[in-house]
Structure prediction request, 1644 residues.
Amino acid sequence: MSSTTPTTTDIDRARLPELLPLCRKLAAQFAPRAAAYDREGRFPTEDFGEMRAAGLMGILVPQSHGGTGANYADYTRAIEALAIGNGATALAFNMHNVVVGALAELDMEDVPGRRAQSLAACRNWIYDEALAGKVFASASSEPEAGPRLTQIKTKYERVDGGFILEGTKSFVSMAGHADYYLIAARSEQMFGDVPGISYFIVERDNPDVTIREVWDTLGMRATCSNTLILNRCFVPTERLFLLEGVALYKSTREPHWLIGGFNGVYLGIAVAAFEFLTSYLQRQAGNPNSPRRIDDPLVQHRVGELAVALESTRNVVYDAAERVVRDRGSLATNIAIHRAKYLVNELGPRLSSEAISLCGGSTIAKRFPLERYYRDSRCGGLMPARSDDCLTYIGRAVLGIDVTNPLTSYW
Amino acid sequence: MSSTTPTTTDIDRARLPELLPLCRKLAAQFAPRAAAYDREGRFPTEDFGEMRAAGLMGILVPQSHGGTGANYADYTRAIEALAIGNGATALAFNMHNVVVGALAELDMEDVPGRRAQSLAACRNWIYDEALAGKVFASASSEPEAGPRLTQIKTKYERVDGGFILEGTKSFVSMAGHADYYLIAARSEQMFGDVPGISYFIVERDNPDVTIREVWDTLGMRATCSNTLILNRCFVPTERLFLLEGVALYKSTREPHWLIGGFNGVYLGIAVAAFEFLTSYLQRQAGNPNSPRRIDDPLVQHRVGELAVALESTRNVVYDAAERVVRDRGSLATNIAIHRAKYLVNELGPRLSSEAISLCGGSTIAKRFPLERYYRDSRCGGLMPARSDDCLTYIGRAVLGIDVTNPLTSYW
Amino acid sequence: MSSTTPTTTDIDRARLPELLPLCRKLAAQFAPRAAAYDREGRFPTEDFGEMRAAGLMGILVPQSHGGTGANYADYTRAIEALAIGNGATALAFNMHNVVVGALAELDMEDVPGRRAQSLAACRNWIYDEALAGKVFASASSEPEAGPRLTQIKTKYERVDGGFILEGTKSFVSMAGHADYYLIAARSEQMFGDVPGISYFIVERDNPDVTIREVWDTLGMRATCSNTLILNRCFVPTERLFLLEGVALYKSTREPHWLIGGFNGVYLGIAVAAFEFLTSYLQRQAGNPNSPRRIDDPLVQHRVGELAVALESTRNVVYDAAERVVRDRGSLATNIAIHRAKYLVNELGPRLSSEAISLCGGSTIAKRFPLERYYRDSRCGGLMPARSDDCLTYIGRAVLGIDVTNPLTSYW
Amino acid sequence: MSSTTPTTTDIDRARLPELLPLCRKLAAQFAPRAAAYDREGRFPTEDFGEMRAAGLMGILVPQSHGGTGANYADYTRAIEALAIGNGATALAFNMHNVVVGALAELDMEDVPGRRAQSLAACRNWIYDEALAGKVFASASSEPEAGPRLTQIKTKYERVDGGFILEGTKSFVSMAGHADYYLIAARSEQMFGDVPGISYFIVERDNPDVTIREVWDTLGMRATCSNTLILNRCFVPTERLFLLEGVALYKSTREPHWLIGGFNGVYLGIAVAAFEFLTSYLQRQAGNPNSPRRIDDPLVQHRVGELAVALESTRNVVYDAAERVVRDRGSLATNIAIHRAKYLVNELGPRLSSEAISLCGGSTIAKRFPLERYYRDSRCGGLMPARSDDCLTYIGRAVLGIDVTNPLTSYW
Prediction:
């Protein structure tokens, strides 16, 4: 797991000096188990147990509340480090942090009186649960809408003491394994001229929630991203997440959690593929002309090409993450997040495919992890924002077209 | 299975009017069974049964000997059509034809007297076996040498009435399922300044042959390309294939069977992925701005890009195949074969990866064939000639450097 | 000028055995003069003089009428050969053939009685003029519309004995040098639901035609593609070209002349760049590790990559050209023409840019032709159909969307 | 000249708050003059006059010595800003700074006694001359060696009171215009196992220096990079630059001046091309379907793609520059410098070529600057390190191969 390349040592410059070594240690524990979880499509219970024991469920909970207090840049490096060991574990873990992270950034001063109180109560409860090792999952996508929030059909209506939710969610990572689900649902009501879409927290054991086990896929097999059915499911008032109707504004104004959280995960898988590549080549004999494969000029050249792709993507991912910390929600920051997402989307399939070419036929065997990287990395571009959405977003922004309107966005 | 695109109709222009319809019919039968064979890594016994029943084992046996008499161009189109149904089946079948095809092209007038007689006898026997539905497999690669013939370690020595073979072969498609194996082995003797490497035919049931079942891979899982061990295995004189010491000359002078046979197979997988893509998109609803996905300008553009990649690769593959028929073994023909191999190598992973991007997250589910195309197509570039070998070959050739010397080749 | 690469010898397989050798001989005469024409932006009068003397103005005039009778495939190879010597000369010459070629393909049986007579008269007159060495130029583009026919503003109206034309044409290659201009103009009338756009032939010396010399550009400097102003210019009835209102139908139904004629020209420039590259590298010394540059593995590899790009584009260009001969106007043929146009558009800038990289800094000097190829080749993608138009056309076609409607086309 | 894109505003975060506004102001003055200098291949005397007047010749002279004291990161942004106005001016100016910059970084404590004294004297003299507005030029390349220092043939020998230099230098930017030339020359002596190559400063008016005006090229025409001939030219002892024999060590241990100085220049040209592109598109009308060109989805997408390429290259260039400040000469820093050089090399030709595609045929006219960007940007990859050299360097480094040995380097 240890990197042999001088170019990746800078990962150490984190603000929280113990966080990255911890994540790397965990990743090294995940790695030997990853193949079995993948083959069986089984949830990585042991990985989550170790993360829970290490206090990682509170990674984004502020230090003032007893958590690790990682900011977006710290978190990006941490999730990258975890993904080196098992991308599916890191991806599932990211869904937990999407929930906590959005809360932790909340500036309570912007929220008017009474709402602030209930918001603070919800937040404190979530912080406490996370610190107690509870896991949250995010359930936004739907069978027909995909990840497009404006198209979702899951409805909610107000009733005494809470809400009733009805609908079907797909691609719910950790479905059946997380303790809570964050559900996006729409009301009849409009907020301004956009549909009123809100988030609610539902417990795993709510009797009106059913899981349908359909997750049998090319890659990311251990996330168990199954289908979740809400059958007139009651949610008490205090389980409203953030404020009512805020979902679409959030996704377009501050897209870093919804789309940028994936950047670290898929960067980590690419790092794993690259580290496999270089260490494999270093052990391989060449042909009579260049007895070591690493002395073959074409191999050096191709490895150099992939190193450039990897490290420049890393530069962009880190730059975007640091912009979030410095200047959250600005146009330049949001462009940077989409730029990073695009590059990460494209990097993984290309790098892992080229790595297979360079390593040769033996390395498509399941006893090596490379073929899993090839499969897992193909999934990154399917999560929002897709590559085309990223480019359209950036193109519009630099041409001076408004990109903050949810109705003309890719959501 | 039927193509909806006007650009693929030209596949019909074959010299043998019944061959392509037959192959397409078979492919349509293979397709629904392919997922199970893939999942279980099981040999496609039913597919081979149907091909055998249809007389396809004799596809390359001359009409004068009772076979179909397909030439290289006919064959390329036929194997492409079969691969649309199941790439692994087509790949395995190709290995059979590598054996028969090299024989069928043999110009007996070039071979001196006594040798011509034994050669003719061997050839007729192979023709008869093929017509009787027997399957030949090719065993060249080795654990350390990979596909590099000059590096193989399997040895043969002359004994009374035949030869003794000793060594280990890897990536032997249909190991345990084919009726015969074509084994490449080296003698102590040099032929000119190149190692004397010869081919021998060994029966499946030879007691000195052991199969080790190790094939558990990313893709092409149904080829059962296991390891084959020859433990001082006796082969009678009449099972010497072609002439002694001819292997390396053959691979560099007329590489179309050894490397170009793969072109049709992997082109066919790309065709299948493209046909899936267009028919899937045609059924998909879009977003409010363009209610059909196919009306989205970015979708049209991207599909156009992939169509160009596919059809131009097809142009090159067919051009190369027709050159083999017209001008076998010439430098221009061999360049064309390598050009086609390079483009096919690169096409598959790219096209299937982009198709997944375009179709979206649902299509990585195992109930669709697209994820299998993504995995299978990644294997094409691992078979000789690899992309870098193709480019080096072509670059040298156009710069006026001799590419016929086996010792400086990629073999 | 003679090719040193075995891959380009197939150019000889033309139907007219004397045509290609003639074109190559002329190209060899053009080459040493090209730099001066380029620098001064001067029309290649000598080149045209030699082509005229060789009878090339009648290359597309049927043999039955005394011409060379080249078909579209012959012509594509011929123009490619000429462009190797001077791309600007070949491009200008192509504009002449766009006029003659459309006529030569005309199937008179489709045209009803009286019109057929006047059409035949016009055609015979053009044939005679071409055979007499007269040069036709094509004037379609306009300052605002660019090449989009549906957007042109040049108007015509019927008057006694003919038509009055009024408007401004831009990018008129050979403006001031050709003997005649083919002018596209619109009437008030609609033909069906598309604007009625017709073509007229105007003489160079018509007093109501003015040339404005504005052509001072990056590349293709010797085409003198100046602006032409029609100031209520009278054209007699017999100078109506083809039939009234036919322009848009022609451009969408049979786009090979309007867009595919460029394929040979820009392919030829790419061939010239590639031939320069290989012959330059063959003369260059390398470094101590590989004393000849051509022995450097990276050089071989890169040259191989460019050879593949060049030759596969050539395969596609020839395939498209042969389809025009075999199956003119079919959807598959039109897709093939756009496929070829796209590949040629992309090939030139890339190949010439890479050739400069490989040859090194000395070769950007104006005493070498390579820098001109880099500039000239950049112009190919600007002529219709642009790369994006090609991909959209192909994408729509393979997705089953109608591409024959001029109003939704890129015209 | 002002950027319309939010993504480029971060250029303002420089340590020296007045430097970038100054450079941008100068660039705005350069821009309208650039076309004439380019056309005539004339040295940009006015640009240099303005830079001199603004004190920019001392940009790298430490503040303690009265200069601006820009560090490598400041300088990179400054030269980028200048290049937006005229790339040739910025490139020539960079050659001056290559001389001063190497000195300014010198850690005198590493140099033993007596040498330190003469080194300090030389440095102070150069600082004073720079502050007085004198311009230094760098003369390393040679007709046969190109930029490979190990291959140069210019010789020096010790004589009383100094050295005698003999040889020919090519690509000497500002030859005939700079006040001094920095000449690389070799002695008979070896330093360790590498050739002893040293630098000397020669005055413009030295009677044994002759300029041959040969610079007539595709791009960067105003740098006047002519040939310089040293005819037994005497140089006094005190004009030895740095220490004897240090050249090769410097170029491999701390390559940022020799190769990384170009990064800002060519990044600036790419910025200029991109800004032209977006502002041109914003003014253009579209077709009936999308009346503004910027509303065309394909345009947005393509612009997004180029924005990603530009901004991610910028991220990498700035990251590399900051590493030089933080950790000069480390392997990770040198890799970063090569990574940036590679991306900048590739960016320019691609971005300017695509910008021409998007803007359309009108913009190849010489009245627009875009065609000059296309020509100038093509020159970046010809200056060391070339793209292939960058990739080989990086590939070797990450595979654990020593890249500090000058004899196996690209120098």
